[in-house]
């Protein structure tokens, strides 16, 4: 999808039942401008302060019934504790903290080497419950929160945003913060085309890092449910990159096995 073809669907607040059977959706009246918008420079989104501070934090639903969450983040160093998430019920005692260990990986793309990519799935969460979670160690610890969805049922409303072709322009920023300004949104259904790194020379992988920092103010606090678009393919045999979707699949995990799928795409 092209970056300028986002006028109609780029940010809609949608009312829909979780079952998807009993209520029609209602979209917001927000329309993103159709004119080309200037790209935000990389330095717009610097890494957070602190030694080995976790960054690019994002979450997505971790199973098919809403009782799991996949928490993903990046660190520059793979120190002890950097791959652990601690979490607890927000109105409970911090002494009840539980922890989960993440899988950790890296990837290389042309002349770029990624940071350490961590993905942890936490399970057996309660429905409609707010949780705090912490990443990092010492003074670099960062705290976030999320609220689990309600138990599915024929008359259970669930409000989510639909975003696609977001990119990293100044119009992208307007779109994201328009969505965040509406307190009703509980999750985002992202319908493809994330960082647009492939629009830059040699598929500049730094754009994946800046994109993760850009969406963190929302994606760290409510599940973004990802779908890949054509801009995630990153197939570039001219520079020796022949593994399609390499950056996307390393950075954005989805619970495809929960639905017995064989592919995250």
From TrEMBL:
EC number: 3.1.3.2
GO molecular function: acid phosphatase activity; metal ion binding
Signal sequence, start to end: 1-24
Cofactor: Fe cation; Zn(2+)
Catalytic activity: a phosphate monoester + H2O = an alcohol + phosphate
UniProt cross-references to InterPro entries, sorted A to Z: Calcineurin-like_PHP (IPR004843), Metallo-depent_PP-like (IPR029052), PAPs-like (IPR039331), PAPs_N (IPR015914), Purple_acid_Pase-like_N (IPR008963)
Domain Calcineurin-like phosphoesterase: 159-261
TM regions (residue ranges): none
Domain of life, per lineage: Eukaryota
Keyword Oxidoreductase: no
Keyword annotations: Glycoprotein, Hydrolase, Iron, Metal-binding, Signal, Zinc
Residue ranges constituting the Purple acid phosphatase N-terminal domain according to the UniProt record: 54-148
Keyword Signal applies: yes
One protein family per Pfam: Pur_ac_phosph_N
Family note: Belongs to the metallophosphoesterase superfamily. Purple acid phosphatase family.
Protein name, entry field: Purple acid phosphatase
Species this chain originates from: Brassica napus
Taxonomic lineage: Eukaryota, Viridiplantae, Streptophyta, Embryophyta, Tracheophyta
